[in-house]
Amino acid sequence: MADSLPALAFLGAGSMGGAILQGVVASGAPVDGGIVATNRTREKADALASLAGVTSIALDENPAGNTEAVAAARIILVGVKPAMVPDLLREIAPALRDDAIVVSLAAGVTLATFTEVLGERVHTVRSMPNTPATVGQAVTGIAGGPAATDDDMALVRALFEKVGAVIKVPESQIDALSTVSGSGPAYVFLLIEKLTDAARGMGFSDADARLMSEQTFIGAAALLAASGEDPAELRRRVTSPKGTTERAVAVLQDARLDDVFAEATAAALARAKELAAGA
């Protein structure tokens, strides 16, 4: 059986919090003390209520739901919208256990904000997961706050490893990490979308175009994972000299994809800094 986790509270189990929550449940890891999730409305709460071992609270019916959830939890994951974080922290501060670890899922909200509201003694961790957590294939960056201990970081790492891979970084790299792994699924989906469009343009049906494109990405990623090879080496193996793939890859390289991805991630990083500044 998987290693157990301490009691968890998900405050704002929306797209990201919900993905982590679903991934933890799907992993089968036992949670000592259970999992409590809060959402603003009954509709959103009901979407999580069927998950095994999860108590789902609608705040519009139980306004004290956040403090009740926090009082029973060792690890508290803050998944509300960034602008709502300070008010939420002020709400839960009196109810935190002495051994509580408060984990941020909020993009652009710094550990300094958590320390300012909760105080320097509260153990805080900033995280940047991505949505493949739902299927146990996330990449999550974690950075410890000033009071976070090695044991705290080990617990938080164990939590996120239930839903994928974990990278420990200084907080100064969290925003940069978010431009690669945080936003990265969108880049992959865009590439699949455009390859599907190209297949349609060659006369394939919508269903066949989608199957070819999606399964090609899924299969290539699985081959990469299974082989342990560098992706450049696998690309070379597919690219026969003077063949069709070589001609296609030349077109893609002429489009300077390296520059395009550098510009895209730089734009995402600039926006992350704007969000952190409240813009």
TrEMBL record:
Its EC number(s): 1.5.1.2
Transmembrane region(s): none
UniProt entry keywords in alphabetical sequence: Amino-acid biosynthesis, Cytoplasm, NADP, Oxidoreductase, Proline biosynthesis
Location of the Pyrroline-5-carboxylate reductase catalytic N-terminal domain: 8-108
Pfam family, one: F420_oxidored
Catalytic activity annotation: L-proline + NADP(+) = (S)-1-pyrroline-5-carboxylate + NADPH + 2 H(+); L-proline + NAD(+) = (S)-1-pyrroline-5-carboxylate + NADH + 2 H(+)
Pyrroline-5-carboxylate reductase dimerisation domain boundaries: 171-275
Pathway: Amino-acid biosynthesis; L-proline biosynthesis; L-proline from L-glutamate 5-semialdehyde: step 1/1
Tagged with keyword Nuclease: no
GO molecular function: pyrroline-5-carboxylate reductase activity
Subcellular location: Cytoplasm
EC top class named in words: oxidoreductase
Function: Catalyzes the reduction of 1-pyrroline-5-carboxylate (PCA) to L-proline.
HAMAP family found in the cross-reference section: P5C_reductase
Annotated family: Belongs to the pyrroline-5-carboxylate reductase family.
Protein name, entry field: Pyrroline-5-carboxylate reductase
Organism, as annotated: Microbacterium commune
Lineage: Bacteria, Bacillati, Actinomycetota, Actinomycetes, Micrococcales
